[in-house]
Amino acid sequence: MNESAWDGTLSASEFSASAQAFAEKWKLNNPAYPPWTWVKSLEVPIFATNQQVEEGYLSLENVCIVKSNDDEVASCVEGEASLYDKEDEESTDSATLPYYFDFHIIYSASFRVPVLYFRAYCSDGRSLGLNEIESVLPANSAKVLLESKWTFITQEEHPYLNRPWCKLHPCGSSDWMKLLFQAVEKVDRPAMELYLVSWFSVVGPVIGLGIPIQMLKEP
Amino acid sequence: MKEAQEFVWMGAIPLQIHLHESEVTTVPPPPPALILAPRIGYLPLLLPLIKPYFSSTLPPGVDTVWFEYKGLPLKWYIPTGVLFDLLCAEPERPWNLTIHFRGYPSHLLIPCEGEDSVKWNFINSLKEADYIINGNCKNVMHMSQSDQLELWNSVVNANLEAFIRSSSKLKSGTIEDDYASKSSLSSQKSQKMIGEADTSVQTKTGKVPVRLYVWNVSEDFGDMEDAPPIDSWDRISYVNRPLEIHREEGKCFTLHDAIKTLLPELFGKKRKPKGEGNISQPLETGSTADDDPEIKLLRIQGIEPKLETPISWVANHLRHPENFLHVCVYIKVPSAKSL
Description:
The structure holds 2 protein chains of 2 kinds.
Chain A: H1 12-29, E1 37-40, E2 56-67, E3 73-77, H2 86-91, E4 99-108, E5 113-121, H3 130-136, H4 139-147, E6 153-157, E7 164-168, H5 173-185, H6 195-203
Antiparallel strand pairs in A: 1-2, 2-3, 2-4, 4-5, 5-7, 6-7
Chain B: H1 2-10, E1 12-19, E2 33-38, H2 47-54, E3 66-69, E4 72-73, H3 80-87, E5 95-100, H4 115-134, H5 138-141, H6 145-156, H7 160-167, H8 175-182, E6 207-208, E7 210-216, E8 236-239, E9 243-244, H9 255-262, E10 294-299, H10 311-318, E11 325-332
Parallel strand pairs in B: 1-5, 7-11
Antiparallel strand pairs in B: 1-2, 3-4, 3-5, 6-9, 7-8, 10-11
């Protein structure tokens, strides 16, 4: 695009294109999960009348996450909780009860990178606080969060929904994205459709969502 | 420039704060607290001034303070002056607010644990503005903890002198410094500001941090007093996008241009730019502008600047301490917007 080195960021339209590629690859390679959907952002109700609104975000909702005994997070699809033995559930403490997560990947115009927003709730609909969520995250992840200057979680307002959500901070994303691409892809500037796949390979495990290795390969 | 900064920093809103009736345990109920709140400050910071009025009448329990205006819980991280400009179409003096010490609406408002939460939010906004202006957060990240604290305290106390001293340590994080001393560095992006302005919004990235609060008013109203009250935050559109300034020879990028650039969904591309320079009045209601939204009201720091004002002047003179320009705008969109 330009002669100077890539700074690790992407434009709004590159994000939209990358989101589509990500969603398609996910559907193909992660059939056990529900698919990511693209939600058009309707910041102002009257925008709904404008067919040209391209701005939107990726949404994955009702993902059931159960913390198993060996401190790894197992994810299951809502409705398939029967995979887990009912007896096991009853004999364990509240930390292993299934929690449900909603994930939104939203573009930040200020930082020019994707940002992960999420929230969690119990099966009875009660929202989880930040502390409870951190207790469900993988042990590695909790450590990463504590020590890393790049990733930390705060409670902030969802950019579109006017409700408190958790946010994984974007400051520094462009730095590690740049490093990731240089190290892995051996190119100075990536094919932008792959941006989200690579981004998610780093971010996903922090919140307990793995990414199958096939997704990282070119189709 | 200094005068404008003083104007902004000295701006204050007289508040009359009533304790919510459900939390009054004494008869007669306590009188409301009268507080002068700095425009550039935040409501939770006023708590030390307010609490003494009500502490003897509160029910037992832990304080979880929140404010409300006519039933609308107030977002504590929006500067006080911005809340006032947005929610009071017809300025109410004093501004009557209700304070709650119990029953925090955590399904609606993010938690506020006192001054630290507000400070954290301020520093993050400062970083975001830094990133928008410079393409990185280095200026803020390299500030020592004590310098950051000094900067924050100058905001808490609305002390401009202290702020100027502290922000000099931000090392050209401000818009005008870039222009004054670094125009040689931004060779690729330097475009002289034509017309007006001894000060230019010359930033490394060519972008200005702006936060827009848009209220689509569906019914027409002549008098501000008739403006319908805002009963839910869902009715306000919050647009947090950097403003990219497009400079053209001989033309001035105005406040009006800025609003249109920030809201492309409203001010669509269907209008051909024939002589953009002569858009010097608010949108006319004839000819091609029939479908365009009408800006009913635009407020920044309590004033209503003319739409033809150069955006560079507005951004440099009316921004908040965290370097964001907060703009409240009431827009009326024609009901049948065809494409």
